[in-house]
């Protein structure tokens, strides 16, 4: 049976960095489910479908096929066979995906793929509803969070390095807005699973968080 580690939490808590690092250390595969939701948004933008029009999005879902593959250990997302990994991280896609991921048909489209990957492989899977909905039987569930301010400062520094400029106040506002949307949607809202371990990374660096989760894994796996 495969070993599944579910890491959920709000945007900017460090989930993807930590999940990727942990997966590498454990020789598990890293599954970034947010990237799959982002790829759906890319499809909508490429095809002129308004992301806020739930009926149109639901209809479009019939034409969307998302799959993933790995290149040098890095997850690549294929949208109808085309690698769209390079298009997923724009500010526009980040902003719109929160709304797109609240649509039931979109969640239904992606959940089978996520479940299948975890059934067949040892995975570290990160997202918003992995421990609560997708992998309720995961052997280890972590709810990784940090204060809004800490998360905004992290994003600010990343953007500053990438673009040479960034606006902390607007980043903080966008993070708070996405948190609210992700936590208050009707279907599969972001919340801590009852049996998840809470890890607050506000005062911890990446290595400390990774070490803490690896320790939990070793305990659960009886190593
Ligand atoms: O983790 P991320 O920032 O790449 O996620 C992008 C959006 O997708 C985020 O607003 C919440 C949503 N999402 C989700 O609803 N369920 C998941 N399992 C993963 C992401």
Give the CA-CA distance, first to last residue: 16 Å
**Ligand list:** 2'-deoxycytidine-5'-monophosphate
- Across the major sheet, the strand order is 2-6-1-7-8
Content of β-strand:
15-25%
Write the H/E string, N to C: EHEHHEEEHHEHEHHEH
Shape: globular
Spatial extent as radius of gyration: 17 Å
Oligomer: single chain
* Helix content estimate: 40-55%
Instruction: Assign the structural class, choosing from mainly alpha, mainly beta, alpha/beta, alpha+beta, or little secondary structure.
Output: alpha/beta
Mean pLDDT: 96
Number of strands: 8
Low-confidence stretches: none
Total of DSSP H or I helical runs spanning 4+ residues: 9
Task: Give me a quick take on this structure.
This protein is an alpha/beta fold. Helix content is 51%, strand content 17%. The strands form 2 sheets. A 5-stranded parallel beta sheet has the order 2-6-1-7-8, sandwiched between helices.
Summary keywords:
223 residues, alpha/beta, five-stranded parallel beta sheet, three-stranded antiparallel beta sheet, globular, binds 2'-deoxycytidine-5'-monophosphate
Q: Can you tell me about this structure?
A:
With 223 residues, the protein is an alpha/beta fold. It contains 9 helices and 8 strands. 51% of the residues lie in helices and 17% in strands. The strands form 2 sheets. A 5-stranded parallel beta sheet has the order 2-6-1-7-8, with helices on both faces. Helix 1 packs across helix 9. The radius of gyration is 17 Å and the shape is globular. 38% of the residues are buried. 2'-deoxycytidine-5'-monophosphate binds next to helix 2, helix 4 and helix 8.
